[in-house]
Specification:
8 helices; 0% strand; 2 domains; mainly alpha; Tetracycline Repressor, domain 2
Length: 196
């Protein structure tokens, strides 16, 4: 599991244990899903992971950093931006990847989403470390479509880029509608109609 802050250039002492990192990550995410952000404490994570609190504080000085690091590591995916040469195909590839992630890690992402309104610092960290990077990827896909003439030069890439992820996120967190296999194609048809 990666730290949110940049790690020091040189570490002294014993190397970090992957087994300990995995136990901590699982403990954090189980508590987050079961009890919410308020239920995640350094003491509770340490007890559930079978480690000392010092192991946590050496890696993550705050609960917020600990939670964000766990979410980022667990929900990380192949983030190569699709570049098929076609806007429609790129949107299908991107949305297919997002649907797969939401199916695997939906409970974790719903838990984070539920807590962001009550915890502004958590919301800001989550947006900066998770959401904004993915928004930038979609804007890159759309900018290439403008270069190829598939979208007009004045297209609102900011708003258009939110369309697919927002529809999927809305289904995950608000309506509970199924994340069906057909959604990527349906979203691509909205963003890149066949007549273009």
């Amino acid at each position: 599991m990666t730290d949110v802050a940049d790690p020091p250039k040189c570490r002294l002492g014993r190397p970090r244990s992957e087994a300990v990192d995995a136990a901590i990550e699982s403990a954090v995410l189980e508590l987050l899903v079961d009890e919410g952000y308020g239920g995640v404490t350094m003491e509770g994570v340490a007890a559930r992971a079978g480690v000392g609190k010092a192991s946590l504080y050496r890696r993550w000085p705050t609960k917020e950093q600990l939670v964000i690091a766990a979410v980022l590591h667990r929900c990380e995916e192949d983030r190569a931006t699709p570049d098929t040469g076609s806007l429609r195909s790129d949107v299908v590839a991107y949305c297919t990847r997002v649907v797969a992630k939401l199916r695997r890690h939906g409970a974790i992402l719903r838990a984070v989403n539920a807590e962001t309104a009550r915890h502004p610092a958590l919301a800001e960290s989550f947006r900066a470390a998770f959401v904004e990077q993915r928004r930038a990827e979609v804007r890159d896909v759309l900018a290439r479509a403008v270069d190829r003439g598939e979208l007009p030069p004045g297209a609102d890439l900011e708003l258009l880029g939110d369309l697919g992820p927002a529809l999927l996120w809305h289904r995950l967190t608000v309506t509970g509608a199924p994340l069906g296999d057909d959604l990527p194609e349906r979203i691509a048809a909205l963003i890149a109609p066949a007549h273009r």
